[in-house]
Amino acid sequence: MPKRAIQPVIPDAQVIAALDPADLAPMTADAVNALLAEGESENTVRSYQAALRYWAAWFWLRYAQVIQMPVPVAAVQQFIVDHVQRRVESGLETALPRLVDEAMVQCGVKSKLGPPALSTVLHRLSVLSKAHQVKNVANPVQDPKVRELLAKTRRAYAKRGTVPDKKAALTLEPLQALLATCDDSLRGVRDRALLLFAWSSGGRRRSEVTAATMENTRLIGPRAYSFTLLHSKTNQTGVARPDNEKPVLDEAADALTAWLRRSGIVAGPIFRRIRRGEKVGEPLAAAAVRDIVRERAALAGLSNQFAAHSLRSGFVTEAARQNVSIGETMALTGHRSSATLMGYFRAAESQRSAAAKLFSAPQESFKP
Predict the structure, then answer these.
(1) Domain 172-351 -> CATH class
(2) Measured between alpha carbons, how far is residue 13 from residues 9, 10, 19, 273 in Å?
């Protein structure tokens, strides 16, 4: 006998209005957007919001219109020449009028006058491109004319020797200088524990540091903790992997134990604010990790080129200097590709290069 279609029996009182499978219902669309937003990191969301505010302000000041998508290709080309420097007889300049530049600073979407870094311009274009993709409208950033302009712009900057701004790496020596500024106050004990935790567990990103809790960080030995990192930049979906366990050992473990004892923290986030009167407050925001690094660097008399990412780049660079294998380093950092690490390893290797020290090598006396 042919199988009959199965239809569930629903009492009349529970009949639900049928949806159109080809369209999202309003409430469903809201739920989809909420999940998409929740899936993005807080830093990404903030950077997207700031970039879109910038676009809105620039478009209004340039065209006296509210920005709408799709943005015309010509407007994107204008945005590029307004913000990237080109060579003229008098030097380098952009097309952004001074009055517009001043207005952007006054309304708070721009921090200072003058052209931004090329990486900042590229990020704002990337955000605009993403917005067009989400709206499923024609994407002006992918237009051949815009792509050609960007390619030639990158080449022009490279020919001038302009390199991306990178924060200095906190290798062992500067890290020790930062740790030396951490006294026995509650803040000093916390900062020492935080710096060592972030650095020795594989150069944790600032959001990963503030994600450490008593529930995902457990004591496994006299001087050993294991931090379970389920969510990271390279593991957005929280896939269980063997390298999710990050060790915190020896001096780093001692510092963490000292902080937990002094703070009295037994549950929830580990790293927290210190209130007036040596009181432990709410969990630290990710930006606080950057502030702690900068403050300690200033106290140590070091340059202002250090930031939160310096802990990560410093760990990788130090691993290369001490001949730790790339595979072992990647297991701690969480990098999924060795391409990024190779740059650090090659830089460290070049510092030990015998070929680079030929002039300093012992030489026999010249005899004509």
Answers:
(1) mainly alpha
(2) 12, 8, 18, 54
Query: What is the pLDDT at residue 65?
Result: 85
Given a contact cutoff of 8 angstroms between Cβ atoms, the answer to whether 337 and 327 are in contact is: no
Whole-prediction pTM? 0.61
Tokens of 304: 């202002």
Phi/psi region, residue 335 (left: phi>0; alpha: psi -120 to 50; beta: rest), is beta
- Residue range(s) occupied by CATH 1.10.443.10 in the chain: 172-351
CATH superfamily of domain region 26-159: Tyrosine recombinase, N-terminal domain (1.10.150.130)
Rounding to the nearest 10 degrees, give the CA dihedral for residues 71, 75, 79, 81: 150
Q: Is the pLDDT of residue 16 over 50?
A: no
Predicted local distance difference test score (pLDDT) of residue 277: 86
Q: Are 94 and 86 in contact (CB under 8 A)?
A: yes
In the predicted model, what is the mean pLDDT of residues 178-199?
94
The first and second tokens of residue 82, run together, are: 């307004």
pLDDT in tens, 289-317: 999 999 999 998 887 788 888 888 888 88
